[in-house]
Amino acid sequence: VKELGGASYCVFSSEMNEEVQRRLLIESGLRRALERTELYLVYQPYVDLQTSNIVGHEALLRWNHPDLGFVSPVEFIPVAEETGLIVEIGLWTIREACRQTKLWQEEGHQDLTISVNMSGRQFQQQNLVETVRNAIASSGLDPAFLTLEITENIAIHNERNVMTKLQELKDIGIRIALDDFGTGYSSLSYLGKYPLDILKIDKSFVQHSYTDSGEKEIVKTIIAMAHSLKLKVIAEGVETTEQLQYLEQERCDVVQGYLISRPLTAEDCGAFLRSKRHD
Ligand code: C2E
Ligand code: CA
Ligand code: CA
Ligand code: CA
């Protein structure tokens, strides 16, 4: 950096400065975001390929920061994890997503499920299972309609602890999905070991599945393998009818992606649900 000269060095360090400042704003902002109701959930429907019905939604966090505007979860979730704020935010997310789903069920969508993303940090909480149980109870939702999505890196530390908690969550009736399948290092070793119900094929495979024959074979193999382990398969990131047709042909169970709908606010999602009813 030194030999680049003074000017370049200044540009470099002021960029660093901006980055650090943004990070500080995000960190301090997150601490107040919940109570100021700047955080909210959007819902992305997923569809059962056998019935073509919307069978559930994935809840996704959104943050509208007063100065920074819209901040992506890809940016603020890691900060929430590092600071530990994800524990409180994560519980709020479960409570809110279950409450909303219970409302939709009462409007007549009785079998609607809800999927909520979990961070590894939440599994380090000793009382995770108890707090999750309370969060669901406060919503009145039957735990069988809640799916928690985990990723492979959830068990980097203390695998035994994670395994125990997952089993306890399952004992309550909650379903467990392995998210982003195929992107980590240990995907295969997870499948036999963890008490899973659902496998979500990462969108990077789904989106190549029409043009790239190698990727196509991977998708096909993942589906077959999951089924032989009695897991349901959700394909995420489905954007084209070609991708959809291929997934149908290979007997994928459920699809999610922009082709069906982008993530919607609760209000828009309710309207979308009503428009799809055909009974
Ligand atoms: P994810 O769990 O893999 O969520 C799927 C992401 O793919 C979402 O991005 C969703 O909007 C996007 N997506 C859905 N359909 C399509 C599609 O057809 N094409 C493309 N290109 N993208 C699609 P989003 O909402 O920006 O979330 C990004 C990540 O942030 C999530 O990835 C998840 O890891 C994390 N995240 C979001 N909400 C939460 C939360 O409540 N808790 C935790 N721990 N993480 C969350
Ligand atoms: Ca997810
Ligand atoms: Ca995913
Ligand atoms: Ca992801």
TrEMBL record:
It is found in: Cell membrane. Residues 23-277 form the EAL domain. This is Diguanylate cyclase (GGDEF)-like protein. It comes from Paenibacillus phyllosphaerae. The lineage of its organism: Bacteria, Bacillati, Bacillota, Bacilli, Bacillales.
